[in-house]
Amino acid sequence: MPRPELLEQIYTIVDQIPPGRVTTYGRIAAMTEGATPRMVGSAMRHLPDGHQLPWHRLIAASLKLADHGGAERQQRKLRDEGVLFDAKGRVPAHLVWPD
Predict the structure, then answer these.
(1) What secondary structure letter does DSSP report for 94?
(2) Do residues 66 and 59 make contact, with C-beta atoms less than 8 angstroms apart?
(3) Any idea which fold 4-95 has?
(4) Which one, 17, 40, 55, 56, has least CB within 10 Å?
(5) Partners of 63 in beta bridges
(6) Domain chopping of the chain, boundaries
(7) Which residue spans traverse the membrane (predicted)?
(8) How far apart are the C-alpha atoms of 38 and 43, rounded to whole Å?
(9) Structure pTM?
(10) Using one digit for the tens of pLDDT, what is the confidence trace for 32-90?
């Protein structure tokens, strides 16, 4: 689990991802002061109950959903925001935030 100050950075950045857009674990990590993509994933897995963070807007660098138990729910939430997936399950690159 990342240090508390890194968690705060990760959560602050994730909270800024606009509806209908996605970003990668690596992009979030690059915006922090020392987190790795794996740390970002760990932070998302350990979100506190009742959080309002848009966890579903984080995807793998391959622009596919990460393979986890909530992937179906994640895809449904993204589709509800207008995010489309190609035949291989990837999100179009123009939807990756930030530009």
Answers:
(1) G
(2) yes
(3) Arc Repressor Mutant, subunit A (1.10.10)
(4) 55
(5) none
(6) 4-95
(7) none
(8) 9
(9) 0.93
(10) 999 999 999 999 999 988 999 999 999 999 999 988 888 999 999 999 999 999 999 99
